[in-house]
Amino acid sequence: MRARTLVALLAVLLLLSQAGCTGDPSGSGARRAPCVRGDDARTAAQTLLDQRAAAVRAGDRDGFLATSSRDADAGALEEQEARFDRIQQLPPHSFDLTLSVTQHAAPGELTSYVNQAVQLKGIDEKPLGVVHRVTFGEHDGCWSVDADETEDIQVTEAPWEAPGAILEHREGVLLVTDEQDGSARDRILDAAVDAWQAERRLLATENHRPDDRGVVVLAFTTNRAMNVNGFYYRSLDLTGGIEVPVRTGTDEIDFRVLVAPSTLRDDSSTYLHTMLRHEFVHVLLARHQRAPTWATEGVAEYYSSGRAGGPVAPITDLVPPGIVTDGVGLPTDTFFADTWEERAGNYAVAWAAMTYLGEHFGTSEPARLVAVLHRVNAYRHPRRTEQVLERRYGLSVDDLGARARELVAAVG
C-alpha cells in the first residue's frame, strides 16, 4: 500500500576526498591554474571557489582539478573527478560556491564552511544548499584547495554527492540510481517518464508552477545501498515509495520521490508505474499539505487509479480483500493505522470518497477540493472540512463517508 508518510531520513555523511590545487597534480593531466595570491585568506578562498564554480558550469574538468593542491594523491583526484562528472550529468541547473563561516585560520591556512547552492531548473523552486568544509592553503605564494569534504548532507538534496550514483535525465525525470545494468535503468526510467507525463496531463489545469516541469526519483536497488545513502528502507516496504521534502532552512523547496528496492524488480513493473503515479500526484499537489490526510492520500489514489484518465490500476490494489472499513465518516487521526487491514481500508475509503466526487462533480474536483481544504487549514481545524463539504456538495462528512463505503463494497 502506498503512503505519503513523512519518514525521518538519517543524515548521511558522504566524505569527499581531498581536492588539490594550483599546481600540476601528479598523473591528473590537469593544467596549471592561474596563481591566486594575496594576504587576505578569505578573498583568496572565494576567488578559488569562483574558479571551481566556473569550471563546473563550463564542463571544464581540468580547470576544476587545477584549483586543487599539487600534493593531492591520485585516489583523491579520482574521487574529485567522479564528483565533477556526476554534477555534469544533472539536467540544466545553476551552481554556485560561497564562502561562509570560518572554522580555523592561521597564517597561510584557512578552514571554512562553504555553501554549495544548486537549483535544478524546472524542478527546484529555489536553490538548494549543502555545506562543505573546505581547507585552503598557501603554497609558494599561491593559494589552493587542500581538502574538501561534505558536512551532514542528505542525498535527496544533492544526489550528485552519492558515491557511485548514476544520474540519467529524460523528459522531465531525473533518475538517481546505483543500477549498473543499462536495460534495467531504462525500464525504471521509462516507468517514471510515463507516470510523470500522465499525472502532469491530468493535473495541468490545477498546477501551473514552472518548477513542476520535472521531478527527481531516487531508486537504489539494494537495502545496503539504501543504508549507505542514509535511508531506512524497512518502512518503505510497506508503501513502495514515499515523497520526501527537501528544504533550505525552514523553506520547503521541493519534493523528491524515494522508491523501495523491492518495487524495482522485473515482476513489479505494473506496481512501480502505479506507485510512481501516486507519489507524483503528491509532488504536483505538494503545496496543499494542510488538507486532511484522507484528502491528500485519497486524491493521490484517485488520480493514479485511472478513474480520472490514463491506465487503470487493478482494483485489488485499491480495495484489497480482507480490509477493514468500519466506522462512519472519513478516516482522520488514525489514517495510518497499525494494522495492514485498517490502513488499507482507510486508503480504500479515501480513494472511494474522491472517486465519488470525481464522478459526480468532474474529474478536476478532487484536486480543487484539496486546494480549498488547504486554504482553510482543515488539517488542524476538522470542523472546516464539514463546512466546505456542505457548501460545495451539500454533504456532511458522514454522508461522504457513507457514499465511499458503498463504493468500496460495490467493487470489493
Explained architecture:
The chain has twelve helices and nine strands. Among the domains are: 120 residues, Nuclear Transport Factor 2, Chain: A; 125 residues, no CATH class. The N terminus is likely disordered. The chain has 412 residues and is an alpha+beta fold. The strands form two sheets. A five-stranded mixed β-sheet has the order 5-6-7-9-8. A hairpin with a 2-residue loop joins β5 and β6. Keywords: Signal. This is Peptidase MA-like domain-containing protein.
Quick take:
The chain is of the alpha+beta class and 412 residues long.
What are the key terms here?
single chain, Nuclear Transport Factor 2, Chain: A, five-stranded mixed beta sheet, four-stranded antiparallel beta sheet, signal, Peptidase MA-like domain-containing protein
